[in-house]
Design goal:
The chain has about 190 residues and is an alpha+beta fold. Strand 9 and strand 10 form a beta hairpin. The chain is globular and about 55 Å long.
Length: about 190
Amino acid sequence: MTECIDEQSTRHHRGRWFGFGPVRDSEHVLFAVFPSTARDGNRLVENSFTKNMNRCTQSLGRVRYVTRRAFDNQIVRNDSVIGIALAHVSAIRRLRADIATPNGVLEVKSVCVIDLVEPGDCEGHAAMGYSEAINGMSERQLGKKRKAIRMDLANTFAEMSSPGAHQWPSRLGIIPKRFVAIAREFVGLFIRRD
């Protein structure tokens, strides 16, 4: 079963030499919480996550690469935001789901986190969604499994906090990170050739 092959490459609309490359396990991501986002006080809940999970397009920001200005102008845009919730990428990627098969129960990765930058997105945009490994069961089973996954995901994110309390990176601090991403991609070319 395919789990998350898209995690291994960039999905930047301008190509692999742009953006910051694949989302790494060591990163943190942020989830913008709008007034319409379902929540329980300062905590995300299962219904905080939308049908975008089905297409692996649930929007996230990569904490290392999103300035406050980019957050306000390219993520929040003309909407109002009431907070942000953070999660460690490795914690999201460790989430598992049990899938019943004729040969027994398989434990598979349930959520993918990918680098996805489409026109209009900030350079530090990422997305998450269900792993392809959970597909292939009946619609009834799939609905229950996705609900359980969203509950696990809600528990993985920290309590919501104010955007003003977050330590946003500076625009100048992001420039060297861009060069590091290019260098990683360049080195990756030589490793793939061997």
